[in-house]
Amino acid sequence: MSRPDVVYMVSRFPVTSETFIVRELDALDRTGGFDLELRSLFPSPDQPVHDIERRWNDVAVRPPAAAALMGFAWAAATRPWAWCSILACVLAAYRRPSLLLRAMVAVVVACAHARDLARRPQPPHVHAHFATYPALAAWVCHRLIGSTYSFTVHAHDLYVHTSMLERKIADARFVVTISEYNRRILTRMNLGHTPIHVIHAGINTAAYPFRPRAIPADGPVRALTVASLQTYKGHAVLFEALALGGGEVDRITLDLIGDGVLRSDLEALAARLGLTERVRFLGSRSEEEVRAALGVADLFVLPSIVAGDGQMEGLPVALMEALACGVPTVSTDLSGIPELVVDGVTGSLAAPGDVTSLNRTLAEMVSRGAATRDLAEAGRAMVTTEFDLRQSTSALGALFAEDR
Prior knowledge:
This protein is α/β, with parallel strands linked by helices. It has 16 helices and 12 strands.
């Protein structure tokens, strides 16, 4: 019996902050149960940073501009009714000119992907990561060549950019999302009763050595944040909470792993708040370097907020990694985070965007001292039980197998 043919569709590849996608793809590939392919829509802004990305980068498929235009013409000539219907749906759903332009580019590139896939004896199953343009491309392939499709919903694709989402859900074979919080939102949009499954974007817990941490009784407390430098990650709130001070909080020094558009602004803010000697900007780092940083950290902080445009976290992989390593963890009561960082059980939660609340939560965590070991033990158990990559891969693989 032949193995299921599954095509992964993403916006861009590689993307340094989206290693969870390639981890999932690699784990599925190791099972030997699927013929897997990776396809993308747009050029990537990043070079491969992680070793796991390099292998897939060599085989990822992104049609050049000429091939994309040929695919668009092929769809118009060979599937005119589907082609017209696709254009009508997209023009009606994407009202903002900037979104419509990007959607139309995605449609053109998707036509080239569909043309390639149409040459196969049987259409593959297309699985998209993110409900935005990748899911749109998967839907275009479905309309043009009859391939089944599914997609995984994360964060901005549900909280900010929801154009045509009800239609994408209705026509999908199934939808995956990363948290119960997300499933509740999607259920309200699921007019066609498409199956919606919660499958966590898990990690390989065995790759993260567990050392339950006790906050030192005195001296510096080495805190770590791993997050791209974007507004919704909440770095500015964290800086202000540190500057607010207090006996325990004044002991905290902070390393930041991650890069992004706000780096210069955040460096200037740290200087204005008098934090230059306490905050280090380390930029992007490999997975091995992140693990090493987690290995020596006393405290992990992810101060997530809701940005002005509605963007916020889904369920950050960085929190899974910190808990897996046994690092006492502080985050915020937002989106799916409380499903992982259970306040007072596996970590501590502050009110999102509230400087005073975050300052108080940090102080309380530091003052716990040796008692943070209990949080660390519970955190590791939570990640191992509910967020292990093998479990999430098995659940997703079962859905792909059912779709044969």
